[in-house]
Here is the input.
Amino acid sequence: MAANILLVEDEPAIQELIAFNLTQAGHHVLRASTAEAALTLVRNALPDLVLLDWMLPGASGVDIAKRLRADERTRHVPIIMLTARSDEQDKITGLESGADDYITKPFSPRELLARIKAVLRRRAPQMTDDAVEVQGLRLDPVTHRVSGNGGTIDLGPTEFRLLHFFMTHPERVHSRSQLLDQVWGDHVFVEERTVDVHIRRLRSSLEVTGHDVLIQTVRGTGYRFSTQQ
Ligand code: CA
Here is the structure.
């Protein structure tokens, strides 16, 4: 379960140590030392998870969490707050600001990785390795295989990620810009037309087993994965 993780930590030694451990575990790490730098990175590409140090120069981790939660685009990004405070009241403040979890320094790399996994499982099901199945269409992230009614379906890497996201977020409309954020991790440098191209390819691969009808166009809005016609 490799994720794009934004690490916001101002102490160089701690930042280095955490980034090293995350990279060793297969994650891709973006780093920021201030709120401003963190928000700039988030504007460019939506991370899968944010590790947020509470005490930063200028705006605090709590301020950043509140800002991410207040914006429609970043509202659902999982946040884990890192802090030296172990006070119960601080924990409540951290969680009320919108953090999904809270970890007190010092923590072991193992504990951090376990928390990350738990939060991703809860908040971003497309990041986990659980197989998903809808009406005979089955996608297995571990083997990277997709099958329809038992037969193999060949998908390119982008179509695979797109289908995985759809299957784990069914019955709701996703705009092209949301899909770019969630599937490409980038809504700035990739054109929205790109989404249509990959949707077309995905549908064409699913046609063989008739599962293409699950990918629906919602006129003027975007796309939806739905079992209802
Ligand atoms: Ca700090």
About this structure: The mean pLDDT is 91. DSSP finds eight helices and twelve strands in the chain. The chain has two domains: 4-127, 132-225. Helices lie at 12-24, 35-44, 61-70, 88-96, 109-123, 157-168, 176-184, 193-206.
